[in-house]
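STRUCTURE:
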């Protein structure tokens, strides 16, 4: 008799992440953006609305990504005219990342597209199941943060 295959959470979440990333990249293609680039723009938009200056280091922490990764994302966003890098008045070594008008105009379209995708993705769940799913995922994240070795 065959052993029942044990379900393992990590690979399942990785598959979900891969599919979400793929679909978001397809969704944002017409805006000339990738998932990572849109995450940076949304973060900058959120910070700008709260009058918070954002450096590259802040973005690295927010996305939990390395300096070279974020540097590449910012280079591409700058080339596309979505961000500016401005010298920090208090620290000459530091650059403040700001949105351009082009990015401000496109941010609403990003939010709308991602909201539609979220709704599509969660359409197989009722309201209670959605609430439970978010609760479970947030608890897992909190637990993993608590158990991290520093």
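SEQUENCE:
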């Amino acid at each position: 008799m065959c052993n029942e295959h044990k379900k393992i959470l990590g690979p399942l979440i990785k598959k979900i992440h891969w599919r979400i990333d793929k679909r978001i990249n397809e969704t944002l293609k017409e805006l000339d953006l990738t998932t990572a680039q849109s995450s940076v723009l949304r973060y900058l938009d959120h910070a700008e609305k709260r009058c918070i200056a954002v450096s590259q280091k802040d973005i690295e922490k927010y996305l939990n990504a390395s300096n070279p990764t974020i540097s590449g994302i910012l280079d591409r966003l700058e080339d596309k005219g979505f961000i500016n890098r401005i010298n920090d008045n208090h620290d000459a070594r530091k650059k403040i990342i700001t949105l351009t008008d082009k990015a401000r105009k496109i941010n609403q379209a990003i939010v709308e597209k991602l909201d539609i995708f979220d709704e599509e993705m969660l359409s197989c769940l009722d309201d209670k199941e959605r609430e439970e799913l978010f609760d479970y995922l947030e608890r897992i994240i909190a637990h993993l943060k608590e158990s991290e070795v520093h």
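REMARK: The radius of gyration is 19 Å.
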